[in-house]
Amino acid sequence: MAAKSGALSVEGLTRRFGDVVALDGVSLDIAPGELLTILGPSGSGKTTLLKVVAGFERPDGGRVRVDGEDITELPPARRDIGMVFQNYALFPHLTVQANVAFPLEMRNVGKAEIARRVGETLALVELKGYEARLPKQLSGGQQQRVALARAIVFNPRLLLLDEPFGALDRKLRETMQLEVRRLQRRLGLTTIFITHDQEEALVLSDRIAVMNRGAIQQVATTTEIYERPANDFVADFVGESNIFHGTLTEPGVVTLAGGRRLRVDGAAAIGERLGVLMRPERFAMSGTNCFAGEVLEAVYLGASFKLRLACTDGLELIVRQPARGRLPAAGQRIEVGIEPDAIHVF
Asked: What is the pLDDT of residues 308-330, one digit of tens each?
């Protein structure tokens, strides 16, 4: 299959439902062949954004362009966009073959060409031999593959996936994540993936756009989103976090509200109010910044111990340590440390 992926640009999209602002001036640029995940909690506007791009919702303002062509007013059928829904949206009375052939029939493709392309696409999603089955005769994962095949069989310019793995169990979901990523790279398809699952976003994406209350909070690579979040919301939403606030009282020193002084890296003006992020796995048994306290809770997670630690100065930390030796007991006193370059200041 030859991809004809396009560059997507959305500019200043707004959408209101009564008093609810679903999209608040959203702008995004997605490069040809890129997989961008839109990550956010329920009600953040991510599905509304996808529906506007697909043509199922009309924006109150703003434009949608693919390769420079304004498609804002085009109906969904003329946008050349493939879409996969969480509930699969397969035709229950049609076979796998007929479900996948449907978009080609709507485009008046010849029978021989339909047979060739359906066969080729089913082989891509590893469903060769399932052509005559009905959706009810398939597992959830197989139904999802049929939906994916139907979305790509006509060589769309864009592929949109709206929480497609939400109904699958964890192990199958992880398998499908890797398969979608493999397929997307092989075809070079420009893809938008919607999810509220931060781990899924980190596994799949070239870049992540974090949304909240109808607005984009940050767009960055997976590493940047995790290591250098732009604000409190992104830091708290993506991954486990210890977030505190303080003031830069001297170069390289942030003083927290309770008086604790933290050595940090990064330039800022003296007196500036700052957020401080310390990821649980960045702590070690010692470090430039030391924290001593009592274990409130300890959980064994296989490869690591997750500890909730009450420090002597009133701070409470979440700390992850490699699972070596015994799991610390509640009430046990321990000391951990973190280096300045492991602390993100924003």
From this structure: 999 988 899 999 999 988 999 99
Q: Which residues of 251-261 are buried (b: 16+ CB within 10 A; e: fewer)?
A: eeebebeeebe
Answer positive or negative: Cα dihedral of 104, 110, 115, 116.
negative
Q: How many CB atoms lie within 10 A of CB 45?
A: 24
How far is 338 from 124, CA to CA, in rounded Å? 47
Helix axes 140-152, 111-124, angle to 10 degrees: 130
Average pLDDT score over residue span 43-67: 96
* 165-192 confidence digits (pLDDT tens): 887 888 888 888 998 999 999 999 999 9
Which residues neighbour 164 within 8 Å (Cβ) at sequence distance 6 or greater?
Answer: 84, 85, 86, 144, 147, 148, 176, 180, 193
The answer for residues whose C-beta is within 8 angstroms of residue 187's C-beta and 6 or more apart is 1, 3, 5, 152
pTM: 0.91
**Could you give the dihedral angle defined by the CA atoms of residues 33, 212, 141 and 36, in that order, rounded to the nearest 10 degrees?**
10
Nearest alpha carbon to residue 88 among 141, 156, 35, 159: 141
Tokens of 49: 């954004």
**Contact (Cβ atoms closer than 8 angstroms) between residue 319 and residue 336:** yes
Q: What is the CA radius of gyration of the chain?
A: 24
CA dihedral of 21, 9, 234, 230, whole degrees rounded to 10: -120
Closest alpha carbon to 193 in 12, 53, 4: 53
